[in-house]
């Protein structure tokens, strides 16, 4: 009887095997193979030679490659910061408003906020590119007295990256809004009522009660924002191009990796998979350095 109970208690392992197999084939193996590839040089034809850390040394010592990498690295952090400050802060604000019992039509507003998330990035990027083009939008803006907004926002090195990031925030703000809304709805109402009886203000209840309770959700949203922004590619591709125009001012780690490892840098146009894999490997460890402490800090909170 004891052996039968012990064997039945291990049956859960069989339920994990399909997911584990899929994860190994499509996630773990490509990741390890990419790390391995970073120690080789050669072309996509398969003629590879082991070069050790040569790709990493080239990435950080070659003047042109190093400049492109550090520019893309810095732009990615700016891209991430804008999402944290605009997308997630507004998402929290919208969630607080949507969970307010006096709010009318909350379901309609929820739909409106989440709707851009359902659209393809290439479609929204192209539409915003037309909207921000002064040739297309200038006459319409002039008719309503907003002609001063008809500026080449995507053509200026100073404004291109913030504008692309804000468009991305507009499209994806629905996800943190819905996650924050679900988290706030699960805060026990009796705790809130007891705080109000004690005379606590709305701000005190929010900062001292609600935020600590939903801290795991806040941490998860921060992690998702961090990972997604360091893998961002499609919004820049749709609104600018893979060269991070103008003058590489919108170049991110994702577009740099694509140019180096897949498409090939201008003007030669020959991909360098080893160098591209080195960029991807460094990005992986940067993500680990940001994700693991955040998980420990927020997900273990009781």
Write a structural description:
- By secondary structure, the protein is mostly helical.
- It has a single domain, classed as MetI-like (MetI-like fold, Orthogonal Bundle).
- Helix content is 71%, strand content 1%.
- The protein has 15 helices and two strands.
- A two-stranded antiparallel ribbon has the order 1-2.
- A hairpin with a 7-residue loop joins strand 1 (40-41) and strand 2 (49-50).
- Helix 3 (54-61) crosses helix 15, helix 4 packs parallel to helix 8 (160-172) and helix 14 (253-263) packs antiparallel against helix 15 (273-299).
- The longest helix is centred in the first third of the chain and has 36 residues, at 63-98.
- The mean pLDDT is 90.
Defining traits:
302 residues, mainly alpha, MetI-like fold, two-stranded antiparallel ribbon, 2 strands, 71% helix, globular
Mean pLDDT: 90
Straight-line distance between termini = 38 Å
Structural class: mainly alpha
Question: Widest sheet: strand order?
Answer: 1-2
Number of domains as seen in the coordinates: 1
Number of helices: 15
- What is the CATH T-level topology? MetI-like fold
Q: Which helices and strands appear, and what pairs or packs with what?
A:
Layout: H1 2-9, H2 12-37, E1 40-41, E2 49-50, H3 54-61, H4 63-98, H5 106-114, H6 121-131, H7 134-143, H8 160-172, H9 174-185, H10 189-197, H11 202-213, H12 215-230, H13 234-239, H14 253-263, H15 273-299
Antiparallel strand pairs: 1-2
Helix pairs in contact: 2-15, 3-4, 3-15, 4-8, 4-9, 4-12, 4-14, 12-15, 14-15
């Amino acid at each position: 009887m004891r052996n039968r109970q012990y064997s039945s208690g291990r049956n859960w392992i069989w339920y994990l095997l399909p997911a584990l197999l899929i994860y190994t084939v499509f996630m773990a193996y490509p990741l390890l193979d990419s790390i391995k590839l970073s120690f080789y040089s050669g072309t996509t034809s398969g003629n590879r030679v082991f070069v050790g850390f040569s790709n990493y040394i080239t990435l950080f010592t070659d003047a042109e490659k190093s400049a492109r990498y550090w520019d893309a690295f810095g732009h990615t952090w700016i891209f991430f910061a804008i999402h944290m400050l605009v997308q997630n802060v507004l998402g929290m604000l919208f969630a607080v408003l949507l969970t307010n019992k006096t709010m009318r039509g909350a379901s309609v507003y929820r739909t409106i906020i989440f709707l851009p998330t359902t659209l393809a990035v290439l479609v929204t990027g192209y539409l915003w590119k037309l909207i921000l083009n002064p040739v297309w939008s200038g006459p319409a803006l002039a008719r309503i007295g907003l002609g001063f907004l008809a500026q080449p926002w995507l053509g200026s090195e100073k404004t291109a990256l913030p504008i692309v990031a804000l468009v991305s925030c507009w499209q994806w703000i629905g996800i943190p809004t819905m996650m924050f809304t679900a988290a706030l709805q699960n805060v026990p109402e009796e705790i809130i009522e007891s705080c109000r009886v004690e005379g606590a203000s709305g701000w005190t209840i929010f900062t001292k009660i609600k935020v600590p309770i939903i801290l795991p959700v806040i941490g998860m949203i921060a992690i998702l924002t961090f990972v997604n922004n360091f893998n961002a590619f499609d919004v820049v591709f749709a609104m600018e191009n893979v060269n991070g125009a103008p003058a590489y001012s919108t170049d991110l780690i994702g577009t740099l990796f694509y140019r180096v490892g897949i498409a090939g840098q201008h003007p030669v146009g020959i991909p360098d998979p080893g160098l591209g894999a080195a960029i991807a490997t460094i990005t992986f460890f940067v993500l680990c350095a940001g994700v693991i402490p955040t998980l420990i800090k927020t997900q273990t909170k009781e």
